[in-house]
């Protein structure tokens, strides 16, 4: 089973449940006419979940960026390979 299918197995039933509850509360009144703060929170829940997901994703990217390890050995190996390639190209008169 792919990750897409796993996510859809959770999101589709949750979305249908939220939609049915939201439709029940919005049957007679608009969003701004709701008296209860809980109902307004419930109606804004998908937007809040999307914002939380964005904050989590940004935090994860920033954390991974700040804790990225320096690869000094790999850098030296790469510079050595580049020098060898330049030498090979000069020896075969492919580069000035």
UniProtKB/TrEMBL annotation:
<feature type="transmembrane region" description="Helical">
    <location>
        <begin position="38"/>
        <end position="58"/>
    </location>
</feature>
<dbReference type="Pfam" id="PF08285">
    <property type="entry name" value="DPM3"/>
</dbReference>
<keyword id="KW-0472">Membrane</keyword>
<comment type="similarity">
    <text>Belongs to the DPM3 family.</text>
</comment>
<comment type="function">
    <text>Stabilizer subunit of the dolichol-phosphate mannose (DPM) synthase complex; tethers catalytic subunit to the ER.</text>
</comment>
<keyword id="KW-0256">Endoplasmic reticulum</keyword>
<comment type="subunit">
    <text>Component of the dolichol-phosphate mannose (DPM) synthase complex.</text>
</comment>
<keyword id="KW-1133">Transmembrane helix</keyword>
<dbReference type="GO" id="GO:0005789">
    <property type="term" value="C:endoplasmic reticulum membrane"/>
</dbReference>
<dbReference type="GO" id="GO:0033185">
    <property type="term" value="C:dolichol-phosphate-mannose synthase complex"/>
</dbReference>
<dbReference type="GO" id="GO:0006506">
    <property type="term" value="P:GPI anchor biosynthetic process"/>
</dbReference>
<dbReference type="InterPro" id="IPR013174">
    <property type="entry name" value="DPM3"/>
</dbReference>
<keyword id="KW-0812">Transmembrane</keyword>
<comment type="pathway">
    <text>Protein modification; protein glycosylation.</text>
</comment>
<protein>
    <recommendedName>
        <fullName>Dolichol-phosphate mannosyltransferase subunit 3</fullName>
    </recommendedName>
</protein>
